[in-house]
Amino acid sequence: MSRTFPAVSIDLTLLRTLFREEWRLHAQLFGGRRFLGFPAIIAILVAAAAVGLSATGTSTDAIVTGLHVFVFAFGLYSGTAGFAGSDMLENVFGDLSLVLSSSTTLPLSRRRLLGVFLVKDALYYGVLFVLPMASGLAPLLEGAHSVTLPLAIVALWGSLFALFVAGMVVTVAGIALRTRGVPGWVLAIAAGTGALALWTTGTHSQLWALFAGDGAAGTAMLTVSTLALGAVALRVYDPTYSRPSRTATDRFATLERALPLASAERGLVAKTLLDLGRSSGGFWKPLVSTVILLALVAAMVGIVGEITGIEPAPGIFFGGVLGLSAFTTYNWLTQFDRVEAYLAYPVSVEAVFRAKRTAFVLVNGPTVALPYVGAVLWFGATPRDAAVGAVLLAGYSLYYYGLTVFLAGFDPNEFLFDAVRFATFTLGVAVVLVPTLVAGFVVVPPSWPITLALGCSGLLFGAVGFVLSERAGSKWERVYRTG
Amino acid sequence: MAAITANGLEKSYGSVDALADMNVSVSRGELFGFLGPNGAGKTTTIRILTGQVTPDSGDVRVLGVDPTTDPIETRRRVGILPEQESPPSFLTPREYFDFVGKIRSLADETVAERVERWADRLGFRSKLDTLHTDLSRGQQQKVMITQAFLHEPEVVFIDEPLANLDPIVQEQVKRFLVAYAAEDNAIFLSTHNIEVAEDICTRVGIVADGKCIAERDLGGDGGSESRSDSDDASTRDSENSLLETFLAHVDDANARDVPVMQR
Which UniProt keywords are listed (chain A) (predicted)? Predict the structure, then answer.
C-alpha cells in the first residue's frame, strides 16, 4: 500500500533538493571554495563602490536608491529562473537536466514546481547575493559605528529583498502571460509604454516613494502587492505550454555571399556569425560586456580624478583599456562550437582559427568603436588624443586577441582554471597596458612625442597580435592532431 | 586496391596505449563492421583514418591518400559521421547543408537537389527551417547522416549511425548503407551493436585491446569465413554466431579507457 505524504512535506523535500542543486551548480561553475567567497566579494565590491561614490560627492540617499534600482533589475533577471534556460549553462555543462524539468517524469504539477523553484531562488539569491549588498553599504549607514548597525543592515536588506522579489514576480507575470499566447513584443511594448507614462507624468517617483522609500510601511506594502501579483501570475501560468520550435529563413546563403572574403573562408565566418547572432542575446552580448567594462573604467577614472586631482587623457586611457573586451568577444565567438566538430570536414584547424579571427574583427570592431566614441565625447578628448586612442584600441584589441588565442585556443574560459596560463595572459596584458596607462596619466593632453610613441606601440602590438593569431592556428592544429 | 588500409598502427595517450598493432583493410563494395567494447580503440582508429589524429607509428592509406600527411584531402574525399557530434545548434538544417556544401565545394543546385532527396528519404522535410537546438536527437542524427553523404563520397566512416532513430528510419538507413556500399563504395561502420553488424555488414573485424583480433566474412549469402589469431579459434569462429565469436574474443577487462582528448 502506498503512503500519501502531506503537500507541505513534499514542498520541503523539493525545496531542499532545489537548494542542493543550485549550490552544486554554482560550486561547479566557479569552484566550490571560490563560490563560498562570493558573498564576501560582493560585499567588498559594493563597499568600495559606495565609498568611492561617496568620496566623489554622491549623496548616501542616491547611493541607496541606486542599489535598490540595481537589485530590482537583478530580480527581473532572476525571474527568468536564473541560469536555467541560458545557453551559457549548456555550453559549460553540456545538455543539462534540472530538477525543474522533473514534472515530466514525476507526479508533480509544473505550476507547483515553478512556485517552489521561485521561492528557492528568492531565498538563495536573497541571502547569498542581496544580503552582502546590504552589508556592503554598512560604512554609509546611520549609526555605522554604533551597536545598532546590524539592525540598520537588516532593515536595508528587508527593503532590498522585497524589491528583489518584486522584480522576480514581475518577470514571472510576464512569462505567465506568454504561456497564454501574449507575444513577447506586445509585452515589451506594454512595459516600455508603461515606463514612459510613469516617467513623463512623474508618477514613478510617487510609486518609488510608496514602495521603496518609505521604510517598513513601504516594504510591507510592497511585500503584500508582490505576493498578490505572484499568486495571480502562478494562477495565470499555463503548465501545458511549450515553446514553439523556432524557424528561420536561409540566412546562411545570404550572409555567406555578402561577406567580402575569399570563398573558402566565407562559409566558416558566416557560420560563426550566425551562431552568435541567433544565441540568446545575439550580437548585443559582446556590446553589453564592453559597456560594462566602459562603465567600470569610467567610474574608476572619476574616483581617481577626485582622489588625486589627476584626470587621464580619455582617448589613450579608454583606447588602451577597452581593447580588453577582445577577450569577452572572442569568448562569445567560441561558445557554440568545438574544434573537433570541424574535423569532419575538409578544412584545416588553421583555417578555422583564421575564420574566427575574421569574425572577431567583424564583431569586435563596432562593439568597441561605439563605446569608445561615446567615452571620448563624454570626457572631452582632444582630437589628437582621440586619434591615438583609436589606434591603440585597434592595435591592442588585436594583440589581446592574439594572446588569448595563442594561449587558450578555442577555450578562453580555461584561463579561469589554469593558473599558469592565467598568469602568462595577465603578464602579457600588463606589459602593454601599464605603460600606456601611465603615459595617459602623465602628459595630458598627450604631447607629439607621446602620441607618436603610443601610435607606434598600437601598430607594433597589433602586428604582434596578428602574428600570434597566425601561429595559434598551426600550434593548435598540432595539439589536436597529436591528441 | 583496398579503399582503406592500416598497418601496424600504434597510438598512446600519455601512459594509455589506445592502439597496439592495429591492422585493418577494407575494399570497395564492402560494408565493414568494426565491432568492439568501449575503449577498445575503435574511435581512435577512425580518427586516425580520417586524419583527425596522427598515429605514433604505422602506415595508413584511404583512397590512396595518406591521412597523416594530407588530412584535408582525405576528409575532402570521405564522409564522416562522428558518434558524439551534433549539428550547430543555431543553424537550421538547410543552412547547415549550405555550409557543408560550401566547405566541400558543391554547387548550390547540387546541394539543394540532394537535400531534397535526403529530407524525403529520412522524413525531415518539415524540419528543414527549424533551428537544430529545437530538434529532437533523432532529427539531429538524420541531419548528421545527410551531411556525411551529401558529397556522395567513395568512402564513409560511420560511428553508431542508428543512435536515436526510430525503427522505421533505422531500417531505411540500414537498407541505404547496404545499397551504397554495393555501388563500389566502402563503408567503415563502428558499432557496439552486434545485431546491426550481423544484419548489414559484409565483413566484421573484432577489436579489443587496441588491435583487430579477429575478422569474419559475413558474405551476404549466409556463409562465413573467419580469420583469427589461432587456427583452432578460426575453426570455432566459423561455427559460432557473431555474438558468440565476439564474446569468445573480447575480454571486457582488457578494454581500455581512452581519454577523448588530452591537452
Answer: Membrane, Transmembrane, Transmembrane helix
